[in-house]
Amino acid sequence: MPDLVADPRSAEAPHTNPVLRSAMVRFTIWSLVTLLVLTAGAVLVANKIAERQALAEARSQAAAIASKLAAPRVNQEVRAGNEKAAHDLETVMDTRMADGSVRHVKLWDEQGRVIWSDEDALIGRRFPIEEDVTELFDTREATAELSDLSKEENEFERAEGELLEVYAGAFDADGEPLVFEAYVSTKQMKTAAAAIIVDLLPLVLGALALFMLAVLPLAVSLARRVERAQLDRSKMMRHALLASDLERRRIAQDLHDGVIQDLAGLGYVLPTARRELHSEGNLDLARATLDRATGMLQQDVVRLRSMLTDLYPPDLQGQGLVTAVGDLVQTITSDAGLDATVRIDPALDVPVDAGRLAYRVVREGLRNVVKHAGASSVVVEVSRDHDEVLVRVADDGKGPAAAQDAVRRGHLGLRLLKDTLSDFGGQLDLEPGTRQGTSLMARFPAALVPA
User: Fold this and answer.
1) What superfamily does domain 313-451 belong to in CATH?
2) pTM over 0.70
3) What letter does residue 70 receive in the DSSP assignment?
4) DSSP letters for 370-433
5) Helix (H) or strand (E) holding 167
6) pLDDT tens digits for range 347-375
């Protein structure tokens, strides 16, 4: 059964950068999402800043109007509802409200009665006063907030839409406390928010753009690393699958050509011996047949044990590597009638993964010698040169031309081995021997990491 299958490189798909493309798409999408979130955040921050500024200005404005314009024009007659006495207050407040910034005004006493309002229907009416407004009596402090206009007193303001509701404590002409309430348009606040957005947004977007430009090379580099790692993993998986397939083929071939043939032969030989096992039979022939069958069985047991050891050596570290390589060389070369020399320092120390790869190099090298070299002897050497492991399989056969021709004609074992060594940053070379024949030389890092 030939051990030839398709070239593993032919199984590789065209390089289309799927990981890099996918990473760039995700980077772009998340960048756009981040851009939208930051834009929304900038708008929200701008609105909050504008609102805070507008409320501060409204408090200051209300306090000034209350203490300088409205409160000095309130006395006992105005409190009593005398329209003539309130004329001066009405004239001043109408003039102040003419620009439209202050939409409505109310003056409150401590009992929750409206002393005066720009809406005549509210003058003299009583409404519940909230606790924070009550606290402003006997002070000159002010508070401001966005009004929800849901209270009963707001029946004339609801048509205005969103307004700033401002309260300021003050003292009238008689020294009596009152609270000045004004409803201020939010137009100025919105204009300020738009101005802040215009100033803030380019800064935010510019910072984001600079950040994206800064991290883009890193994102591309990481994506390429991930892609290379996946490609290396795929390549190593293909090598592993092809190597597994090659081993199955070799096992099938070894079983077919060896153990199965012998067992089939025993199926014919043993009945012959059985027929002679009687008093008039040829006992010498029976004994010779049984001795031959016993030898075949013993040889097959050795082959099967050797096959198991070849597939999974028990220990490939330290002295275990020396023993495993020695047994491997003995098994392969004795069946082929080769003189073998093994040179491995008993103190050699390599990691177990490097030991497995060294074992595989020796195995493929010896099989190549047996099949293609036409050699009579072989030398196997395993050593370590600092951080590298060196493996050499040298024969006295036909020379490197024959070995190279075997590779060109599809010796999958050596091709897979060469690709595997390359994946780990190593190399495999076929060179002329020191006198004649071929020297297969492998060099790879002791710490196996995909290159």
Assistant:
1) Histidine kinase-like ATPase, C-terminal domain (3.30.565.10)
2) no
3) I
4) IIII--SEEEEEEEEETTEEEEEEEESSS-HHHHHHHHHTT-HHHHHHHHHHHHTT-EEEEEE-
5) strand 163-171
6) 888 888 888 888 888 988 888 888 888 88
